[in-house]
Amino acid sequence: MARAPGGARRRGGGSGRRGQADGGQAVRKGHWTAEEDAVLLRHVLVHGPRDWSSIRSKGFLPRTGKSCRLRWVNKLRPDLKTGCKFSAEEERVVLELQAQFGNKWARISTYLPGRTDNDVKNFWSTRQKRIARLLGTPPRGRSSRSRSRSAKGKAPVVASSLESRPATVVPCLDEVPLEGSSSGVVHPCSAATPFMETRSVSAALAPYDWAGSGLFSFDDGALPLACNSHACSSSNAAALLPFDQPPYPLLDVQVQGVPAGWNWNMAPGFANAGATDHLAYQELLPLTQAAPMVLPFFDAEYPLGGVKAELPDAAPDNFDDLPPDVFDSFDQPPPPVSPPATSSGF
DNA sequence: AATGGCTCCAACCGCATCTCA
DNA sequence: TTGAGATGCGGTTGGAGCCAT
Description:
Layout: E1 18-20, E2 26-28, H1 34-47, H2 52-57, H3 65-76, H4 88-101, H5 105-109, H6 117-135, H7 198-204, H8 234-240, H9 268-271, H10 277-290
Antiparallel strand pairs: 1-2
Helix pairs in contact: 1-10
The structure holds a DNA duplex (21 and 21 nucleotides).
Region (Disordered): 1-29, 136-160, 313-346
Domain Myb-like: 24-76, 85-128
Protein name: Transcription factor GAMYB
């Protein structure tokens, strides 16, 4: 079924429902606009994926922190396979893990690079309904709010066989056999997949270790493929990085209109976390609203009229100025052999 | 062309858990 | 230690697109 990549379908057609926040400030609900996404991305750039509540408390967006987090996790995160159906291999992994873990979608999703718990949950739900329909059995009720919290994840949680059987883990995108191969497994996200413009992504997200996160590859020769033939492990990828170069190409263009010389590495949120972040917003938001901006997570130009960023040929020389804890801002994605001890922050 | 069922998926809600003062 | 706020998770809902009739 040819569908537009998720998110674009209803853009602009959101419900626009509004609730009433405590204190009288209206809380916007429903579908996100491009402008809201831009603001949220700004927040992540400055603060990392945290402090969601401050987005509203500081007046940047009339959205709850939960809503902001959900939007980031499910749609704006750069490592998502948007618009890419579950492959046979992914389905197999879901089936196996669901049998082991029960409905622990967040946990299951850690085995599926690029998939969110919501993706897995939706996939499973659709699949269950399809099976129920084929078997002529009524789908298990949708109104099961009464189920006890303790009943969730009903399957016995035993030591995961997958943890000791890494071969079952979905391999890197690069190594999934293409359709027609002996296994018949379809590449889950082929080259035609609107995965993202990796160069642009890495450029725009410079303040964090996106390259070291193992989520992207760099095809310009400056960096090795982060997702190599053996693992998508961030640690592995990071280990491959030539540290005589910055682990990411620093940007000098993401937002047209940003003053020349603006450097995300100098973003107040990094240089002095929290102290002057509001200043950063004040400085950036009018620019993002007034000028075309680059939102590199999307293939198409952003509705605001942005253009894709071009990477600078030469890496800036102020990488060493970054505080070391900048790179702690993102949790590492799970290694391929076993799930992470803690759920990923992505 | 109209229509109804199905699929997909974004985003909400409520509760659980975590963090920090 | 504890309570409030923040964050995470799982279930659910609703709407748009696709497709068969």
